[in-house]
Design a protein that fits this description.
Largest sheet: 6 strands, antiparallel
Strand content: 15-25%
Low-confidence stretches: 104-144
Helix content: 40-55%
Radius of gyration: 33 Å
Distance between the termini: 93 Å
C-alpha cells in the first residue's frame, strides 16, 4: 500500500484501519501524522454531536404542534362563520349575464374543473364566492323549463359530474354555513356527505349536496320555492330520481337506479329545518 491509498482509506473511515494500512503507517511518519490528525477531527465531531437532550424537549415539540393545529381549527371555524352571509336573489342572474358577455358557454364549461377540483378548505371557500363558478357550471338547469322538476333534476346531475370526484366526508361545521345560504338548517347530517354547494336554479337559492349511498353516490337538492303537487319519479340517463313536496318547496334525490331514493328523501326531510 502506498501513501495515496492509505490516506484515501483513513479519510473515508478514520477509525478503521486494514492490516496493510497498519503496516504502511508503521513505516511512514508522514502517514502516521496524517492519521493522527484525521482521528482527532473525528473525535471532535463526535464530541460536538454528543449533546444532552432536555427531558422536556419532546413535550415542548408536542405542545407547539398542538398549538399550530388549534390555530388551524380556529381559522376554519372563522371561515365557516364568514360564509354565513345573505345575498340578493338576483345576483345569480347578474353574474350569468356578465359571464355571457365575456365568454361562450363552451369556454365556461372548460373552466369549471379548475374552480371546483380543490382541497377541502377551498371547497368551502367556494361558498363564500356566492357560487360564481357553480352558477356558470349550472347553465343547463338555471333556465325556466316546461319539463317536470324530476326530469330537470336528472339532467342537472348528469351535467354536473364533477360533484362525484370528492370522497372524504365533511363535518357538520362546514355543511351548515352553505345550507344557511338557502335559508335551511340541518339538525344533523343524513349520512356521509362528501360535497355541498349553493346552486342558483330559476333565480332561487338552492342547497345541493352529495352523500354516499348503498350502491353509489346520491345527489340531494333542497329547493325552496320550487313546488310540486305530488311525488314525482323518473329514470333516464343512467339515473333514477324522486321529488317530494316539503314545507317551503321540494326535495329531489338523484342516484343509482337500485338506490332506495324514497328512503334517502325521507331521511333528509327529517333533518331539515327552514329558517325562512
Amino acid at each position: 500500500m502506498n501513501c495515496l491509498e492509505y490516506r484515501r482509506q483513513i479519510t473515508a473511515e478514520p477509525t478503521v484501519e486494514s492490516a496493510e494500512g497498519r503496516a504502511h503507517r508503521g513505516q511512514c511518519e508522514a502517514c502516521t501524522s496524517f492519521a493522527r490528525g484525521m482521528r482527532a477531527q473525528e473525535a471532535a465531531l463526535l464530541s460536538a454531536l454528543n449533546v444532552n437532550i432536555p427531558d422536556t424537549l419532546a413535550a415542548k415539540i408536542l405542545f407547539s404542534q398542538r398549538l399550530a393545529q388549534s390555530k388551524d381549527a380556529q381559522f376554519e371555524a372563522e371561515l365557516a362563520q364568514a360564509v354565513n352571509i345573505d345575498w340578493p336573489s338576483s345576483l345569480a342572474s347578474r353574474i350569468l349575464a356578465r359571464v355571457r358577455q365575456l365568454s361562450r358557454v363552451r369556454q365556461i364549461s372548460n373552466i369549471i374543473p379548475l374552480r371546483l377540483r380543490t382541497s377541502t378548505l377551498i371547497q368551502f371557500a367556494l361558498a363564500a364566492s356566492i357560487a360564481v363558478a357553480v352558477a356558470a357550471g349550472s347553465l343547463l338547469a338555471l333556465g325556466q323549463s316546461d319539463e317536470r322538476l324530476v326530469d330537470r333534476a336528472i339532467a342537472h346531475v348528469d351535467h354536473e359530474q364533477w360533484m362525484f370526484e370528492r370522497n372524504e366526508p365533511l363535518p357538520m361545521d362546514l355543511v351548515r354555513p352553505v345550507a344557511r345560504m338557502a335559508g335551511i338548517e340541518m339538525t344533523e347530517l343524513p349520512g356521509k356527505v362528501t360535497l355541498v354547494y349553493p346552486c342558483p336554479w330559476d333565480n332561487k337559492r338552492n342547497f345541493h349536496f352529495v352523500m354516499v349511498g348503498t350502491h353509489d353516490k346520491v345527489t340531494v337538492m333542497v329547493m325552496p320555492g320550487q313546488y310540486v303537487d305530488a311525488h314525482q319519479s323518473a329514470s333516464a340517463r343512467r339515473y333514477s330520481a324522486v321529488v317530494i313536496p316539503v314545507r317551503n318547496g321540494s326535495l329531489a334525490v338523484v342516484g343509482h337506479p337500485q338506490e332506495n331514493l324514497k328512503s334517502h328523501a325521507e331521511q333528509v326531510r327529517k333533518v331539515l329545518r327552514w329558517r325562512l
